[in-house]
Input
Amino acid sequence: MKKSIFLITLMIASTLISAQETSTVSGKKLLQTVQPKIMVIPYVKEGEDLRTILEDDVNKRIAITKIKEAFDNRGFTTVDFAARLKAANANAAFSMENKSDFKAQIIQSSGADVYVEAEVNVLLSQSGNQVKMILTAYECSTGNSLSNKVGESGKFYTDDIGKLASKAVESCAEDFLNTMQNKFTDIVNNGKSIAIYFGFDESSEYLMSSEVGNQGLLLSDELELWMEAHAYKNNYHIQGTTEKQMIFDDVRIPLKDENTGNNYNPNKFALEIFKFMKSLGLNIGRDIKGNTIYITIK
Amino acid sequence: MKKNWIIILFLSVSVLGCKPTYYTHQVNYLEGTAQTISLRCVGYGIDRFMAINDAEQSAVKELLFRGVPLSQQKDALVSTNESESLRKNNSYFNELLSKGRYKTFIISSTPVSDISHYKGSLKQITVDVKINLYGLRKDLEQNNIIRPFGY
Output
């Protein structure tokens, strides 16, 4: 009798344990993802100063905070634009004269891979006020658009523009992020975009039409053949070639080294270019800013 | 001879029985936020309980493999290639859909019509289903069914 009670208890306990196991998430290892750096900035019109626009307009600050909140909900931390702005104001290296250039400078200095521009339009009318929001995400290196959405708050009889801005973001934020994620998945499958600029030092004796290497090919041809062989899945695009310059405005590189599984980045790709140029008997200088590689042939 | 006829008849019945039957669950978007989504769906079953379960499951399946037009979740959470996804992650989806784990992501399920006769022994009911979209997405991410936001 005692033995049967013990067996029954054991059976009930094991059933409960297995039930608990199935209701919890299986202990799979999470996918390791290389996270892009994303910065949310306000849209500025011609002549407007990016430095003062946030301080002057609380509605723009609300809109930007709501967009950052949407990223946070997906477990993603964005680069704080306001903090970068303060750092930039304190940094003498930033040009104070050119207002439009300031945006490019701050994006470049932040090291962001993607920036999201938020345009807030307040429409006041007697039939109610509304806010329309235009959200656009760009890849910093190539300028490729990753996601575009228009959000609307709908018309309300209220002066609380901040609340309307918040509603406008909520109406499109998830859709906006889903589109971005589709583009990120494309990047995982087809490689990350970088831009490569080949130029010449002033004292260089070479031109793009110079014959280099053992095959007697022009330098520009050698570069294109190499790019064809080394761009991820042969994905590359040439913006243009002149005697003094060759620009690859979109070259895909893998996110991970296929052999080692380690992270792959523009620095490593620049090293491959360096080795190739050496094999052609050329000395080069290389600068890497974010996802853009500048090669100067000496 | 008689035995052969019985085998042929048995095979014919089983082949016909295997033919997939698709019902339109008429999944329509009601409302949604970043965290939740409400859908109105029609469920089918031999009784009220089964029909409500069917409606709930169809709402979850719609989110996973089809996406919901007019909502912010226009794209399928997993993929529109349903058979491939089910094959690749068989144990996860077996647990989620067949064993009823999807119920842990349903916030509310409210019948909005009486149960009515549909076809044969099948009955139908219309249900408003509110799903914890945020939780479902996190669960899919944690089980490596979809990639987390980012590369």
